[in-house]
Structures are given as C-alpha cells and as structure tokens.
Amino acid sequence: MPNAPVQLEAIARIALPVPLYSAFDYTPPAGENLPAVGARVRVRFAHRTLIGVCVSVNPPDPHAAPKPLLSILDAESIVDAELFDLAHWLADYYHHPLGEVLSTMLPNAAMKGAELTWQPEALWQRTTLQVDLARAPRQRQLLAFIDRNDGSATAVEIRAAGFATAMIDSLAHKGALEPGKRTYTLEPAPTLTAEQRTAVATMKTQLGNFVPNLLDGVTGSGKTEVYLQLIDLVLERGEQALVLVPEIALTPQTVRRFQRRFGATGVMHSNLTDTERMTAWLRCRDGSTRILIGTRSAVLTPFKNLGLIVVDEEHDSSFKQTEGLRYSARDVAVKRAQTLGIPLILGSATPSLESLHNVTTGKYTRHRLFSRATGAAMPQLHVVDIRGQPLRDGISQSLERRIAKHLQADSQVLVFINRRGYAPTYLCTACGWQALCQRCDARMTFHTTPRGLTCHHCGARKPLPSWCPDCERDALVPIGVGTQRTEIGLNERFPNVPVYRIDRDTMRSQRRLEARLEDIRTGAPAILVGTQMLAKGHHFPNVTLVAAINADAGFLSADFKAPERTAQLIIQVAGRAGRAEKPGEVWVQTLQPENPVLKRLIDDGYAAFAEMELEIRRSAGLPPSRPMALIRSETADPTLGATFLAELKSSIGNDVEVLGPAPAPMARVASRYRHQLMLVARTRQQLHRALAGLRGRTGPRALRWAIDVDPYDTF
Ligand code: ADP
Ligand code: ZN
Ligand code: ZN
Q1: Whole-model pTM above 0.90?
Q2: What pLDDT does 154 receive?
C-alpha cells in the first residue's frame, strides 16, 4: 500500500462569532482541501451550526482529534490582508474576541451564509403619465418627494424618507414611476476663501502619505468645501474616498451635496437592508464606488484603493459603539489611514479633547478656519444670570423680552433644552413623594402628549396618578422643564407665532423632520424648541437668536466628560444662529455665571475652554492625558457585580490605577444592577497588559461583563 501523502497543514483554525477569546480547530470536510485563510466555513459548535472565518491553517496536533468542517463557503479569502490586520488590531486594542470582530466587520448577509453578489441599485423616476391619486395621499406624498429629489430616488432614499416599499410597487404598477438611471447635474466648486485655500494647499501635498489632520473650523467656515476639493484631487489620482458622518447628519442633503459635485456616491448606514449593505460593501471593495459616505460602521468597509478618509464632526458621540465591539470609528479611521499610508481629516467646530491633545503632542496637524465662508459674522455669546429671577416654563423675563424683539424683527428664535418631555420630576408638595421608575434608579419624566409618566432609561410607562400614592393628597406637581413645557409656555406667550418642537418624540421619522425643516426654511418668524436634534448639521438661515436654557446641569454632572459635551453642544447650537445676512446672538441661561469653565467658554470661545478643560483633566490624571478603560458589569443581583469586579481587581498589577468597584452613576437600569471598575494607566502599554490579563475570565453565569477601552462616558 502506498504511503499516504504527508500533510503538513491539516487543521483549519476558525474564528467563530461567540464571546470566547480562542479560535477552534477543524479538519477539512471529507475529501476536500483546507479552506483558504479568510474564507467562510460552516461548522458544528456547541450543538449549533455556525458560520465562521478561517484565520489560519496549521499542522495537525497529534494530541487532538478535531471534527471536520461541515462545508467551505468561499473558494478564496473574502477578507483582504488590510482588513484582516485591522480585525486583529481591533481584537487586540478593544480586547474583544476575534470571531466577534470579524462578524461585526463582515456584512450581515455574509455572516448568514449568503453568496457575495451585489444587486444593481433600484432607481425610480417619474413618468409623464398623470395618474389619479385623489384617494392615495401617501402615494401623492411619495411622488412629491421624488419631484423634490430632482425627479428620481433610489429605494434606499425612498425608505429613508419614511415611505414603504409597497408604495413604490403600486405607483410603478399604475405607470407613475419607472425604473431609471440617475443623471446628475454637476455644480462647479466655489472659489476658496484664503483660509480654506491654505488648508487645501497643505493637505494636497500629503496625498499618498499618512498625515492626520485636525480641521478646526467654526460652523459655516466651509470645512465641507475643503473635504470636497481634496476628494476631487483624490479621485483624479484614481483613488477612493471615505467620508464618515454622525448618524444624525447623514441626511439626503448631505449626500446630495456630494452628488452635485461628483455624481454617484455610495452610502452606508444602519437603515440599509442586508442586501443593500452587502452591495455597498462589495462595490467599495471592487473599486466601483468612488466615494462612500457613511456612519460609524462604514469605517470597517474594504476598499480597493482608498486615498483619503474624512471624519466630519469628529467629536460626535455616535462614532463610538457602546456595545459589543466598543470601537471608536474615529480612532479606527486613524489606524486605517496609518496602515494605508494616506491622509486623514478630522473636522469639527468643537474638536474632541483627545484630538486637541494629539495636536499638542504633535501627532496631529491642526488647520484653523476662523471665519465663515459666506462672510456672515459669528454670533456673540452672552450669559443670562438667572439667580433670583423667576422663570416661567424655563424662560426668564429678560430672555422673553429678547425673544419678542427678534420675532418683531421678522426673525426666528431657537430655544435649546437638552431634555425631552414636560418635566423631569413629578412630586408631591405635601409629603415629598417623587415618581420613580421601579426598574431604574431614575425619576420618571412627566409627558403631556401622550399624557403619563415615562422612564427615559428603560422606556417604562405609567398613567399619571391624580393623588399622591403615599399621602393621598391632591398635591402633585411637575417640577423642572423639558421641551414640551417650553413649547406650551411659548405658545401661550407668543400666540401669533408658530412654535415648532423638534425632539425624538415629535420627529419620529425622517420624513416628518424634513417636512418640519421645510416649514422653518421658509424663514417666516417662528420659535424652534428642541433638543440636540437641532444642534447638528442643519442650516437655519433666518435664526438670529439662540437660547440655551438649562445648560448648567452639564457642568455639574458626575461624569468627567460632561463639561466637554455640554460646551460642544452649546457651541454647535450657537452655530445655527445668524448664518445668513443678519447677525446672530446666543444667550445661555445660568445659575452659576461665575463658573470659570462656563465663563471661559462664553468669553473666550471653545478653543480657550478646551485648553482649560485639558489642564483640569491633566491635573486629575484623566484622559486624554492618561489612557482609561472601564470594566462594566451588569446583573440582576444587587451585589454580585461588586464581588466579581473586586475579584478581577485583585488580579490586576499595581502599575495601573484601579478605581472601584463602584456602582455605575446610574446604578440600576431595567432591573439590572451595574457596577464598574475604572482603570487608568500612565502608558497604553501598561493599560493593555492589564486588560489582556483579564481576557477570557468568566464571571458567574448570571453576570455579563465587558471591557470598554477609551469609554465615551462613564455611565
Ligand atoms: P462647515 O462644513 O464648516 O459647516 P460648509 O462647507 O457647510 O461649512 O459651508 C457653509 C456655507 O458656506 C455653505 O452654504 C457653503 O456652500 C458655503 N461655502 C463654503 N465655502 C465657500 C466658498 N469658498 N465660497 C462661497 N461659499 C462657500
Ligand atoms: Zn404626598
Ligand atoms: Zn426605568
């Protein structure tokens, strides 16, 4: 009998989407070769069938008897070398299992075993046929939307605008819509301002090299125009560009602005179907998408020939994933640009302290744009000292007078409150009882429409009690102010002017938001009351007064990052004012006008505030001067978390400072108790060594725990 051929490599190591840090060994399916590294395979694992990715092939281990793979799904790797390295880097840096990293990176459809094929984008356009839609108001609205959208729209755009796919079919059936091909009317680039020109000229010389840039420019300074002109140069070199934007800013207007300059673009966001996402992914990989505009996860897309990454509004919280693989898309963008040897632009009017810190240490190059591209003046910031002043629905008399003045001048007013509902507290003035959530350590918010109490942390709802459940007296009152209350109050005081409330409760769909924004853009006098939904990305040319009425809370919070976030919000909202011809002013109501941090922000601007806040962080030994990680635990048991975290802590060496275990600032949410350990180190290396030592530790069955490197908040 002839000798069997010597098999040097007979084992495939498979990373599986399970919360375990190791990969698992399998032999090839009977009669087949080993899978390629990077190919998907189907395996049996713990009585389930799973799809994983082959991460290496190895010589057989005489001491183990691995099971055969069920099947090999790909003849070759579907993960290119750069993406594979990125997966390993993510697994190391965020201390997350490689199998879960890979399943986060690959399109959902691929992880479900679908073939890697893409479908052409469905584009619908108007026909000239007039159809009777008298009894189909939604279909009429859809046609009006398509008309506004230059006569055509993709299925993705139509869905994003809040219309059902079935409506497209029915309009197509009636002959009002037909499949089409989009034609773009391209618009020429404007002449750059001197500041923009300097920034573009510098970054132009960086193409083909890794240079991280911070484009620090006031709202309306033309940062987007700087991106556009650099992207133009990148496309000329035959390369692709990736533009990351915050969740809330990825609007049809944003996409259209890119399309007006360059024609077709790809988009990637959480609203795509599995097939659409797979298509967008593959089209970037094979190079047919030249520009991808996307939210957080778009940073994990493979490209054939990427030449530039832009992260717009780099300070925005939506770039950080807060569960599973807790990555920061901004930081991953830096890593990718470095690996690929390409420039990166982080843009913001309110840069994160991390990025400013990186400017100070010389890691990033900062470019500043001090003035608005259109020549409009920057709004002036002031404080309203409300100590001892009566407030009505959150508004002081002096602010009320100012609002009246701006409305009389035919302008619009924007009132910013970072809180939904009518009032954050509902209490008994006789005995002090408060409406608390039974499942969270939180008060329930009083809402007028729909009327009742709601917990903003777990979503629990309760009808409004008419008498105090404790003392049974009729003495319940709402305390404090949210958007609903201010809306109602302003409506009473300014009955002849529309008051538009813009928050998650009123703007549940993109379509409603768009319609509302259209009302506002007519420029007629109006009051806009809203949460941070108003702070991002929108242009309100006729808003000349911006008021932040309860910004104080942010400067007093227990979370060390709260002042930074609050300052960013104030400046972002302020940036909505006076973007056109009329100059704008911004008033911040405060009970602590002498607060040095707030004072610095108002008097000297964001950059000066940031310097001060960086100094505070430095002297407290907090990020960004030292790296931090949180270990969070969550369990139904009130004390288990603390016990488990104390155990983890005892195994951490003493070159890392460990604070806790302590209950999380919001200690109980949805009946689950949350604890945390805070790790702060002098160097990243020390931090990573400590975290690596904790990997794979298993807690009690009923407890979930996770490592969060560079946490966005400490809640
Ligand atoms: P940012 O991204 O910094 O907020 P944008 O790029 O959106 O600023 O520009 C703000 C406004 O100024 C936009 O309406 C834009 O069309 C206009 N704009 C930008 N650059 C120029 C320029 N060089 N000349 C004229 N208008 C410009
Ligand atoms: Zn009572
Ligand atoms: Zn709750």
Answers
A1: yes
A2: 84
